[in-house]
Each structure stands twice: as C-alpha cells, then as structure tokens.
C-alpha cells in the first residue's frame, strides 16, 4: 500500500458530472491511497495505525509534534490506483502492480474502517469515480508512507 499524505487547511472531493461533494474536511490530512496487488488487510491495518499516530500537525510553537487525533483534525481519504504507475520503460505508465478493483476496494474500505476505529474523523472520495479534488495545503507538508 502507498499513501501520499498532505497536511491541509481544507479539502473536498466532488464526483465529476454530478456537482455532488462526497467528502469535505477542514484542518487535517488529505490522503491518496494506492493498493498494490500484493497488499493485505494486515498492511492496511498497520498503515492506518501509523497514519493515526503520525505527528506532523503543528503544536502551539509551530513544531510538527501532534497527530490528527491530538488536535481533533479530520482525514479525507481518496483511492488512487495511479500511485502504482510504472513508467521507467517508455512514456506510457503501466499499472500491473496495482490491485484489481474488487480487492483494492476491500482493502481501501478496511483501511478506512480501521482509521475510524482508532478515533479518527474520516471522510472519503467515491471509489472508482472520476473526481474533482480541491485542497488548501498547509505548509506544504507532504509525507509518503508505504507498506
């Protein structure tokens, strides 16, 4: 599994063509989640735990020292199979390392459930849909985690 985590002041996701906002947060993390073909629910469980404890939210001195749970922040999670793009050979990426959609959805949903069980306020995008994403970055702070 691969996570691209951006600290944000706000973020929202709208399904293109519907004008419907499916996920919206204030201060917190915008997280792109890629699921690989060899990923498991155990890996999703571990990364959810790591994300919930990740100390990159600012404390009263402006230092990255607190987690989203510590500050009552939110997380917006969006599936992103293109995190498994392979473009070393040629100009057109291959996605053969990405999980098939059924497996990816199961692991993605397990990841979200685990975050919620850890006390994190979670909003989501719409799995498999083309989405318009709006973010107001805070920092910017971008962290990549991989299982």
UniProtKB/TrEMBL annotation:
Which positions are tagged coiled coil? none
Q: Give the main location.
A: cytoplasm
What residue intervals hold the motif Gly-cisPro motif, important for rejection of L-amino acids? Answer: 139-140
Entry's localization field: Cytoplasm
Q: Which UniProt key words apply to this protein?
A: Cytoplasm, Hydrolase, RNA-binding, tRNA-binding
A biological-process GO annotation:
D-amino acid catabolic process
Keyword Cytoplasm in annotation = yes
What is catalysed by this protein?
glycyl-tRNA(Ala) + H2O = tRNA(Ala) + glycine + H(+); a D-aminoacyl-tRNA + H2O = a tRNA + a D-alpha-amino acid + H(+)
Q: Does the keyword tRNA-binding apply?
A: yes
Q: What class of enzyme is it?
A: hydrolase
EC number(s) on record?
3.1.1.96, 3.1.1.-
GO MF entries: D-tyrosyl-tRNA(Tyr) deacylase activity; Gly-tRNA(Ala) deacylase activity; Ser(Gly)-tRNA(Ala) hydrolase activity; tRNA binding
Pfam families xref list: Tyr_Deacylase
Q: Which GO terms describe its cellular component?
A: cytoplasm
Q: Which family does it belong to?
A: Belongs to the DTD family.
Present the record's domain note.
Answer: A Gly-cisPro motif from one monomer fits into the active site of the other monomer to allow specific chiral rejection of L-amino acids.
Known partners and oligomeric status: Homodimer.
The function of this protein is:
An aminoacyl-tRNA editing enzyme that deacylates mischarged D-aminoacyl-tRNAs. Also deacylates mischarged glycyl-tRNA(Ala), protecting cells against glycine mischarging by AlaRS. Acts via tRNA-based rather than protein-based catalysis; rejects L-amino acids rather than detecting D-amino acids in the active site. By recycling D-aminoacyl-tRNA to D-amino acids and free tRNA molecules, this enzyme counteracts the toxicity associated with the formation of D-aminoacyl-tRNA entities in vivo and helps enforce protein L-homochirality.
Q: What is this protein called?
A: D-aminoacyl-tRNA deacylase
Species the sequence originates in:
Candidatus Woesebacteria bacterium RIFCSPLOWO2_01_FULL_39_21
Which gene specifies this protein's sequence? Answer: dtd
């Amino acid at each position: 599994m691969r996570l691209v985590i951006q600290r944000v002041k706000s973020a929202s996701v709208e399904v293109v063509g519907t004008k419907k906002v499916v996920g919206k947060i204030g201060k917190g993390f915008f997280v792109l989640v890629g699921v690989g073909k060899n990923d498991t629910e155990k890996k999703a469980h571990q990364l959810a735990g790591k994300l919930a404890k990740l100390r990159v939210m600012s404390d009263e001195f402006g230092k990255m020292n607190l987690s989203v749970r510590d500050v009552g922040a939110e997380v917006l999670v969006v599936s992103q199979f293109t995190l498994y793009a392979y473009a070393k050979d040629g100009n057109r990426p291959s996605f053969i390392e990405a999980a098939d959609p059924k497996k990816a959805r199961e692991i993605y949903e397990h990841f979200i459930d685990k975050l919620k069980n850890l006390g994190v306020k979670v909003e989501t995008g719409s799995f498999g849909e083309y989405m318009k994403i709006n973010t107001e970055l805070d920092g910017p702070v971008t962290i990549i985690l991989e299982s």
